[in-house]
Write a structure and sequence with these properties.
Blueprint lengths: L1 H18 L4 H14 L8 E7 L7 E3 L2 H13 L1 E2 L11 E7 L4 E7 L7 E5 L7 E3 L1 H18 L1
Antiparallel strand pairs: 1-2, 1-4, 3-7, 4-5, 5-6, 6-7
Helix pairs in contact: 3-4
């Protein structure tokens, strides 16, 4: 009799545990939600971008539509790199001001010729986003044009 009760309890526990298993589709949906949260910047209109070589000191302010479109392309095309990174000091600091007043602070490494450019949210310092070579070139050109105008 005891043996039958014990077997019944094991069978009942096995059924409950089996019923609690998540379906594969639910897990995949969860992964998609997590992936969407890992965008560099939330959707929205950019009002201005401030770029400086020293954090908060003498920034170049970009407000022209053409410039803002380049930064929009930069942020939307940046792809999260796998793994955890440990980067040195950035070459540039970005302050992105959205139309709704929300501010985002990013770090930018343009790198040298043949090197990958990278972006990082200053609040998520172990995650880096790769910049496409085309966008890197356009961004380098606009930064160099502003540096020449200042000197």
């Amino acid at each position: 009799m005891k043996r039958a009760v014990i077997l019944f309890l094991f069978a009942l526990i096995a059924i409950v545990l089996f019923a609690c298993q998540p379906e594969k589709e639910a897990v995949e949906a969860e992964e998609v939600k997590i992936e969407l949260k890992e965008e560099l910047l939330a959707e929205g209109e950019i009002a201005q971008v401030e770029l400086s070589e020293v954090k908060g000191f003498e920034p170049v302010v970009y407000v022209e539509a053409v410039e803002l479109e380049l930064f929009r392309a930069l942020f939307s095309s940046a792809e999260k790199e796998p793994g955890i990174v440990n980067m040195g000091n950035p070459e540039f600091y970005l302050k992105v001001v959205m139309e709704d007043g929300e501010k985002h602070y990013l770090n930018l490494w343009l790198g040298g010729e043949g090197e990958m450019a990278s972006l990082m949210d200053s609040k998520a310092t172990h995650t880096v986003y790769a910049v496409t070579p085309d966008i890197k070139k356009k961004l380098s050109d606009i930064i160099l044009a502003n540096e020449k105008m200042e000197h």
